[in-house]
Amino acid sequence: MKDIEYYARALRAPRVADSYRSLGDRAREAGWSHEEYLAAVLSREVAEREASGAALRIRAARFPGHKLLEEFNFDHQPAADRNLVAHLGTGAFLEEAKNVVLLGPPGTGKTHLAVGIGIRAARAGHRVLFDTATGWVSRLAEAHDRGRLPQELAKLRRYKLLIVDEVGYIPFDQDSANLFFQLVSSRYEHASLVLTSNLAFSRWGEVFSDATVASAMIDRIVHHAEVLNLTGSSYRLRNKTRTQLQAQ
Questions:
Q1: Around Cβ 160, how many Cβ atoms within 10 Å?
Q2: Per its UniProt entry, which superkingdom is the organism in (predicted)?
């Protein structure tokens, strides 16, 4: 009916125009009530809209790849607690503004888990943003230079989850360490962080050029946090022999 198609356009609900006929045929065959038919039409519109919104949030998060929790290789990483990872995948920690810290050598799956948790959060309707530690510091330094650091931190607090990858790969000078500390402090007990690092907490003083700043930062991060320690060799190098690695 043209009337239904017009109303669908007016409501910006294009799936209604696509589905009302097919669902109408099914409703007549199955003897649905008017209420059941209407619920089915609206359900399809909502499901498609939610799927589209999730895809947009995933793209906006700027993940480095599409890595799912379901694809994580627990056989290669037996140190990872399956039950804890499954719990983190529910996103319950986000409602408590808790953090997640993934520690371990390079190649042990930290970024995979961080992205997988982030994708789950985006699918659940939350705004997520991903970057490396150096990327976050560069963003804050630019805001600071423009005199807009408080506004930038307030803007970032509107994201339910920020993912900070590769803490410790590149050391920070004092100014960069202070900016990173402000990012952590601004989210403390307000919104969640997922951080990955190749260094134990005891070595973060080396990264942030100041043991006192590092200690204060760690205190805020772990106060409400789940910490996963990953171990073992690099998954990316699993098929390389010792001879091949030495020759590179």
A1: 19
A2: Bacteria
In angstroms, what CA-CA distances link 236 with 64, 79, 170, 198? Answer: 16, 17, 21, 15
Tell me how many degrees the CA angle 99-194-128 measures, rounded to the nearest 5: 110
Same domain, residue pair 43 and 78: no
**How far apart (Å, rounded) are the C-alpha atoms in residues 122 and 225?**
20
- Tokens 């050391």 belong to 171
Q: Do 129 and 44 reside in the same domain of the chain?
A: no
The answer to whether 78 and 233 have CB atoms below 8 angstroms apart is no
Q: Per-residue confidence of the chain (248 residues) as pLDDT tens digits?
A: 677 777 677 777 777 777 888 888 888 888 998 888 888 878 887 777 777 889 999 999 999 999 999 999 998 888 899 999 999 999 999 999 999 999 999 999 999 999 999 999 999 999 999 999 999 999 999 999 999 999 999 999 999 999 999 999 999 999 999 999 999 999 999 999 999 999 999 999 999 988 899 999 999 999 999 999 999 766 655 655 444 445 54
Number of domains making up the chain: 2
3-state secondary structure of 105: coil
Q: How far apart are CA 128 and CA 68, in angstroms?
A: 15
Domain around 131: 69-237
**Token pair for 160:** 């339910």
For residue 201, what are the CA distances in angstroms to 6, 93, 166, 219, 237? Answer: 60, 21, 13, 10, 25
Q: Are residues 42 and 122 in the same domain?
A: no
- Are residues 41 and 157 both part of a single domain? no
